[in-house]
Amino acid sequence: MSSVDSFKSKTTLTVGDKTYTYYDLKAAEANGLKGISALPASLKVLLENLLRNEDGLNVDKDDIQAIANWIVNKGSVEHEISFRPARVLMQDFTGVPAVVDLAAMRDAMVKLGADPAKINPLSPVDLVIDHSVMVDYFGKPESFKANVDREYERNIERYNFLRWGSSAFNNFRVVPPGTGICHQVNLEYLAQTVWTNVADGGEVAYPDTVVGTDSHTTMINGLAVLGWGVGGIEAEAAMLGQPIPMLIPEVIGFRLTGKLPEGATATDLVLTVTQMLRKKGVVGKFVEYYGDGLETLTLEDQATIANMAPEYGATCGFFPVSQATINYLAETGRAPERVALVETYAKAQGLWLDASVEPVFTDTLELDLAGVLPSLAGPKRPQDRVLLSNAKTEFNAALANDFGKASKEDERTTVEGSDFSVGNGDVVIAAITSCTNTSNPSVLIAAGLVARKARALGLTVKPWVKTSLAPGSQVVTDYLNSAGLSEDLDALGFNLVGYGCTTCIGNSGPLPEAISAAITAGDLVAASVLSGNRNFEGRVNQDVRANYLASPPLVVAYALAGSLRIDLSTEPLGNGSNGEPVYLKDIWPTNEEVTTLQRQHVTNTMFKGRYSDVFKGDEHWQAIQISGGQTYQWDPNSTYVANPPYFDGMTMTPDKVTDIVEARVLGIFGDSITTDHISPAGNIKTSGPAGKYLSAHDVPVSEFNSYGARRGNHEVMMRGTFANIRIRNKITPEIEGGVTKHFPSGEVMSIYDASMRYQTEGRNLIIFAGKEYGTGSSRDWAAKGTKLLGVRAVIAESFERIHRSNLVGMGVLPLQFKVEGWSKLGLTGEEIVTIRGLENVQPRQELIVEMFRASDGKVARFPVRCRIDTPTELEYYKNGGVMPYVLRNLARGVVSAEETVAEPAE
C-alpha cells in the first residue's frame, strides 16, 4: 500500500458493519488532481492503482499527475507507469510453461547460492486447466467421459507437474480439468469487481484487476474488472512482485445506443463491433463502452463484447460498474457482503455508470444496436464480417480469390464406405465452443431452441458434419438440462464433449478418416462453423481451410444445412419429415422465448453448487499423487516437461549487449503473421522437426498429442516454431509451410534445421516481417521459440502489442521500419545484415540497418525505430530478458519474498 500519499487520498469506507481503507479519487481531485472526475472509468482504475502503490520509487507523484494531465493530452504524451494487478490468471497451455519457468528459476537460485523459496508468487495466481481436452469422440452420450479419459492418458505428466506446483508454490491454485474455460470460471466465480486484502492491520478495498496468460482475459472487462492478456513471461514477472510497465494509453470511447432487434444475437453484435474497431484502428489502446445502449445489454452480452478485444486489437474493452454488474454478482452466488461493497465502492469512487455523462475520450465512435444484423466472420480472420444474407456469395468469392478455386467449382468427392459425397464449402465441423459465447446463456439457449424446433420438424444434421458442444462451465449443462434442451441438442449430435476450449484453440480432434481422405483426394476447401473468437488459417483443423465464426444457433443451423454454399436467409436448410422444405425462419426462436427460458432456468443455486468445491476435481485428479519438495525432480526422459536452458551459465552480472554483425535472414514474412503462424499450435506433423524428435524418443504417432499439451518441453516447442503448415516464407515463396533456404549453400530445409546450422556456424539471425506482426493469442512461445532459434532481432512494419512486449521479455530486439517495409528492398534472403549501437540503445531510438547484398556487392541502409518502449523494458533487454532480470533482483534481495500478499475475497 502507499507509503507516500502525495494527494492525501487514503481514507475509510463503511459498508454495513465493516470499515475498509481505500484510496479516494474524489479526495485526490480535491487535493490537486484537478478534473479527474471526467476521466474514463478504465483510467480511474489505473489512477487508483498508482495512488495505492505510490512509494516514490516505482510510482511517484509525477506518474499520478500524468494520469490527471491525460484530460488535456488524451494520451498523446507518452508517459510510462507501473501497473500492479491484483492477481494473475492462467490457462494450462500457457500456464504449464510459466510454472516450468518458475521451477527452473528455483534451480537457478540454488546455483546462484540464493534461497529458492524466494521464487514464489507474491500475487494470487489461479490456473484453470481448460485447453487440453480434444474432441476425439463426438455425437454420442459417452463422448464426454471418453474424451476426459483420453485427456488424462495424454496429459498425466503435465497434470502431475501441476499438482506438484499447486503444493510447492504458495499463493497458487489450480482449477482441475473438466471444470470450465478459465475466462468463464473467472467471470462466474474468481473475479470480485472489488478486491480486498489485509495490510497494516486493516482491510483495504480496491478495484479487482488481473493480467492473464491468455489474450481473452479481457472477457472480465465485462464485469468492470480491468485486465488484459500478457505473455507468460510478463505474468511470471507480475507473480514475482514486478510491476508491469506500460504507457498511459489512449482511450477510445464506444457509444452504444438503442436495442438489439429481433433475431440478432450477442454474437452478431460482437462481430459488428470487432469489424468497426479493427477498421478504426485501436491496437495498443483501451476501448471503453458507454451510452444508454448499455442499459439494454446483459452482463453476459458485455462479457461477449469484452472477450474479443484481442480480435479488434485493443488492450481491453472495458465496461463500467452498473446495475447489471451488481445483478450478475448476486445471481452467480457472490457473497451479499461483497455485492454491497462493490456497489458502495463504485459509487463512492465515481466508477458507477452514468449514461447521461460522457467522459473525456481520445476519440469516439458509435453504434445503434438496432442496426445489428445476423452475421458471420471468415473465412480466415475474425474481423472479416459477412452478413448472413451475403454469406453464400462471399464464400464463393473467397473460394476463387482466397483459395484459388473457380467460384462455381461444384465437383464432389465420394466418401468411401458411405452413400454421400463432400464438396467445396461443405461444413465438416460445427462446434459450439469458446469463451466468447459459452458464457452467455442467451445464445446457448437459442441454440437449444433451434435444435428443438428442427428436431420437431424432422431435420437432421448432414452426415459429413462433426458436431460438438463444449460449454465454458458446468453451469451451462445445468441450465440446458433444466430447460430440457440438452435432449434436443443431443438428438442432433451436439452432445457434451468436454468443458474446455476444444475447437476454438485447435483441439477439434481428427475428422473421420474417410472424410479426411475425401477432402485430401478432392483438394477440397472444406469449412468449419464455430462459435469461437479465432479462425486463423491452420488453427481449427488441418483438413479445414475455410473457418467461420458464428453464433451458437447459427452453428446448429449450418450443421443442418451442411454447406456454406446455401443461402440460409432464403434457401431451405432441408426437408422436414413431411417432405416440405424447412427454412431458418421456421426454427429461429424469438427473443422472448429465449429470455423466458433464461429467467426460468439460470439460477443462483446452480452457480453456488458448481463452485462450492471447485478446486477438488474429479476422481482422476484426486488420484494423482503429489511428490517433490521446493525444487522439482525433472525426469530426463519426459517429452512433456523439461528444464529450459534460459538460465544456463547465468551469473549475477549480465553480459554487455553486443551489436548484431553480419546476421543471416532466417525468414521474410508478409502482413498479419499471427502467433498461430509463429508459435507451435495444433497437431504435430510426423515429418516435421518436432515429430522427428518425438519419434527419436520412442513416442508413437498416436501419442504425439498437440503442441499446446507439450508447451512445457522446449525441445518440442523450438522445433515447432515457424512450422505452421500455412505460413509462407518469402525466401521460399513456392513452398507453403515452415521452410527456408540456408545461405550461402542455397539448400532448402526446415526453419529449425536452418537455425541450428546457422548457430553452429556462429551466425546471428534476424527476421523481416510486414504489418501487424504477432497478432493473435498472447503466446509466450512465439517469443521463446524465436529466442531459442537464435534470432537477435525482428524488423517489422508494425507489431501487435503483446508479441512486441514478449520479444523484449525474451531479450529479442523488435525494430520497426520508419519509412517503408521490406517489400521495397527487393529481399531474397541472401542478404547479410548489421545493426550497430546496441550497447547504449535507448527506448524508441532510431537505428540504422546496414544490408549487404551478396548478388551485387552493394550495401543498402535504412532507418528503423527501436521498439523497446520503456526504461523498464530496456533493463529487461540488457539482462537478456525479464526472467533473468527478476531472478538477479530476487537473488540480490531487491524484491522481498515477504511482501504482503493479497488474499482472494471469500
From TrEMBL:
Catalyzes the isomerization of citrate to isocitrate via cis-aconitate. InterPro entries: AcnA_IRP_Swivel, Acnase/IPM_dHydase_lsu_aba_1/3, Acoase/IPM_deHydtase_lsu_aba, Aconitase/3IPM_dehydase_swvl, Aconitase/IRP2, Aconitase_4Fe-4S_BS, Aconitase_4Fe-4S_dom, AconitaseA/IPMdHydase_ssu_swvl. Residues 692-818 form the Aconitase A/isopropylmalate dehydratase small subunit swivel domain. Its EC number is 4.2.1.3. Its cofactor is [4Fe-4S] cluster. GO terms for biological process: tricarboxylic acid cycle. The lineage of its organism: Bacteria, Pseudomonadati, Pseudomonadota, Alphaproteobacteria, Caulobacterales. Monomer. The keyword RNA-binding applies. Belongs to the aconitase/IPM isomerase family. GO terms for molecular function: 2-methylisocitrate dehydratase activity; 4 iron, 4 sulfur cluster binding; aconitate hydratase activity; metal ion binding; RNA binding. This is Aconitate hydratase.
